[in-house]
Design brief:
Jelly Rolls; binds fe (ii) ion; binds 2-oxoglutaric acid; 8 helices; eight-stranded mixed β-sheet; alpha+beta
């Protein structure tokens, strides 16, 4: 085993450990109707264990609510090494003055100390063999099969492996992410309403409901096209919804959510580095192979965002310099 590298901001590992994930040993052979009945009786915050197969109850929970949380899929040493790798790749990109990777803009803005900080990085595994090996590890095989027997990890497709950071500080480029469905992005990529689509996220920080973080609207993955597009204003509405559920995470947790479900990231009430939240999304792809490279254009859906983000970054830098 490799010695863990130290990240600049290791996750907070103080406080309560997570509750034990559900013991499903007596439920492994339930038929879909029985599994659906069990899933209906579980709390919305239920944590599951990722084993060699997605279980009937895990399937049923995901079908019913649109998301599922797996307990500590990455070990503490892996979490630290992944975060340290992101720090290393960030330093490389900064040193090279790089603005995009494979057409996907890098969003740099001031961190709580006023230094340049990478808030969103697409294709984050292409410069990190460790990260690339990690996302292809055998433990994720049941997740791949859940998405489809023909699914593959698109390290060089779509936006690749996306690494997100959120921090609440004066001049922060991004303390949150407003309500949206990921389906909208696929409408842009494919020009049609997407069918079921599952997004797989790894979570690096301890996020309690009081810390902001990921909020979902359970069940909205089965809404009609009109609600998928217009229930809220995509990437603008941030206001609480009475039906929202906070997805509580411990470092190393893995979530699967249906991209047609409404979700957002709320600002942490803390300030500075204690507000830091990091997530990484691994693209599982089933469409025809469409690999990107350094000559790939910026996708249309990112161009508008990129203009807004660059403007916010410039404004933040000016404000910090006074
Ligand atoms: O950071 C997260 O967990 C959510 C990010 C997200 O929803 C997105 O990038 O589409
Ligand atoms: Fe999203």
């Amino acid at each position: 085993m490799m010695t863990p590298l130290a990240p600049r901001h290791p996750p907070d590992r103080t406080g309560e450990p997570p509750p034990a994930p559900l013991d499903e040993s007596a439920w492994l052979h339930l038929d879909p109707a029985e599994a659906a009945a069990k899933a209906a009786g579980l709390p919305l915050g239920q944590r599951f264990r990722l084993g060699p197969e997605i279980t009937p109850v895990q399937h049923a929970f995901l079908d019913r609510h649109g998301y599922v949380v797996f307990d500590a899929v990455a070990a503490p040493a892996e979490v630290d090494t992944l975060l340290a790798e992101i720090d290393r790749v960030e330093a490389e990109l900064l040193a090279a003055g790089q603005q995009k990777v494979h057409g996907v803009p890098l969003w740099f803005g001031p961190d709580p100390d006023g230094n340049e900080y990478l808030y969103r990085m697409g294709f984050s595994s292409v410069r990190s063999p460790y990260l690339s090996n990690f996302v292809r590890d055998a433990r994720f095989e049941p997740i791949r099969r859940l998405i489809g027997d023909d699914a593959r990890i698109g390290e060089r497709e779509k936006d690749g492996v996306v690494f997100n950071r959120y921090v609440n500080a004066p001049g922060s480029l991004r303390p949150n992410l407003a309500w949206h469905t990921d389906a909208l992005r696929d409408v842009f990529y494919n020009w049609r309403m997407p069918g079921p689509m599952l997004n797989v996220g790894l979570h690096f920080d301890r996020i309690r409901p009081a810390d902001g973080g990921l909020r979902v609207l359970p069940g909205t993955h089965t809404q009609g096209a009109f609600s998928t597009l217009f229930r809220k204003i995509h990437f603008v509405t941030q206001a609480p919804d009475p039906r929202e559920v906070a997805v509580e995470t411990w470092p190393g947790d893995l979530t699967v959510h249906d991209g047609r479900m409404w979700h957002k990231v709320d600002t942490s009430p803390r300030q500075g580095w204690p507000s830091l939240r990091r997530s990484m999304y691994v693209p599982y792809v089933r469409d025809a192979v469409l690999e990107k490279d350094e000559n790939s254009p910026t996708p249309a859906y990112l161009r508008l965002f990129d203009t807004i983000v660059k403007w916010r970054a410039a404004r933040a830098r000016k404000r910090i310099k006074g």
